[in-house]
């Protein structure tokens, strides 16, 4: 079976990552999924941003966790990518759900895993929108995933890792998905995962000519920053 296609931070090849413009372009690309990164603002809102600070992807400075939503909303999150995206804002998870949640499946990566409120707020937001069962929650942080499982038993919860050998952690904790950096994947790893009932998603694979190779390995999802270029 052909892998499903997942956009990475929206269609971050065509629009500034983790913005509404990028998520709209992920839908246009025909991707089955979009991945997005979330953190909590100083006033506890779930906002969509990869880095711990706003410095790289906005015209501001400072830690997301020390800025209120009102302060984050004043920032330009698009001009760094190109003038066409000037004025693009830092979205909340709720805004992403509202714009595209019924047109593409959401894979929400918990970045502020050190904040114990994050996981609960993410699951509550997906659940309130009626989207939880079709979504995925993932993190590099095992503790966040174990908390997610308490709140969402049997849910599509994924351990992210750059190392194939960390499949063992997913197996030990009964996590149903392993989202692994694509260089770390080979046929034996996919077979071992599948024999144990664990599905495999690879990131961040931006080379269209490698699609067939990874499809032949049997990976379940390919996550890419260039979904519009992928030969699905
Ligand atoms: O979903 C996995 C991938 O997004 C992890 O890497 O740095 O892009 O969040 P990063
Ligand atoms: Ca991510």
Description:
This protein has 232 residues and is of the alpha/beta class. It has one domain: Phosphatidylinositol (PI) phosphodiesterase (TIM Barrel, Alpha-Beta Barrel). The protein has 8 helices and 9 strands. The chain has helices spanning 20-28, 69-73, 93-100, 118-128, 142-151, 167-172, 187-195, 211-217, and strands at 4-7, 33-40, 46-48, 105-110, 136-139, 157-161, 177-181, 199-203, 221-224. Strands 1-2-4-5-6-7-8-9 form an 8-stranded parallel beta barrel, surrounded by 6 helices. Strand 4 (105-110), helix 4 and strand 5 (136-139) form a beta-alpha-beta unit. The longest helix has 11 residues, at 118-128. It is globular. The protein binds SN-glycerol-3-phosphate and calcium ion. Calcium ion (CA) binds next to strand 2. Residues 35, 37, 109 line the site of calcium ion.
Number of domains: 1
Rg from C-alpha positions? Answer: 17 Å
The helix-and-strand class reads alpha/beta
**What is the helical fraction, as a range of percent?**
25-40%
Bound molecules: SN-glycerol-3-phosphate, calcium ion
User: Order of SSEs, N→C?
Assistant: EHEEHHEHEHEHEHEHE
Q: Biggest β-sheet, characterized?
A: 8 strands, parallel, barrel
Strand content: 15-25%
Looking at this structure, what is the CATH superfamily? Answer: Phosphatidylinositol (PI) phosphodiesterase
**Terminal-residue CA separation:** 12 Å
- Low-pLDDT stretches are none
Enter the CATH topology name: TIM Barrel
CATH class: Alpha Beta
Oligomeric state, counting identical vs distinct chains: single chain
Number of helices: 8
């Amino acid at each position: 079976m052909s892998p499903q296609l997942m956009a990475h931070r929206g269609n971050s090849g065509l629009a500034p990552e983790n913005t509404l413009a990028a998520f709209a372009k992920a839908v246009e690309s025909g991707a089955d999924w979009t991945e997005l990164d979330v953190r909590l603002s100083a006033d506890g809102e779930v906002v969509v941003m990869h880095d711990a600070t706003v410095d790289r992807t906005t015209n501001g400075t400072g830690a997301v966790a020390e800025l209120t939503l009102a302060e984050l909303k004043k920032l330009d999150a698009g001009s760094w990518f190109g003038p066409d995206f000037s004025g693009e804002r830092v979205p909340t998870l709720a805004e992403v759900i509202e714009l595209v949640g019924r047109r593409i499946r959401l894979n929400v990566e918990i970045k502020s895993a050190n904040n114990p409120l994050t996981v609960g707020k993410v699951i509550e937001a997906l659940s309130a929108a009626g989207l939880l069962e079709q979504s995925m929650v993932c993190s590099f942080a095992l503790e966040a995933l174990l908390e997610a499982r308490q709140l969402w038993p049997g849910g599509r919860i994924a351990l992210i890792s750059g190392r194939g050998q960390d499949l063992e952690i997913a197996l030990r904790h009964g996590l149903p998905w392993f989202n692994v950096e694509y260089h770390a994947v080979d046929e034996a790893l996919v077979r071992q995962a599948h024999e144990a009932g664990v599905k495999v998603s690879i990131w961040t694979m931006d080379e269209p000519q490698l699609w067939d190779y990874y499809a032949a390995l049997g990976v379940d999802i390919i996550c890419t920053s260039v979904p519009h270029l992928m030969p699905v």
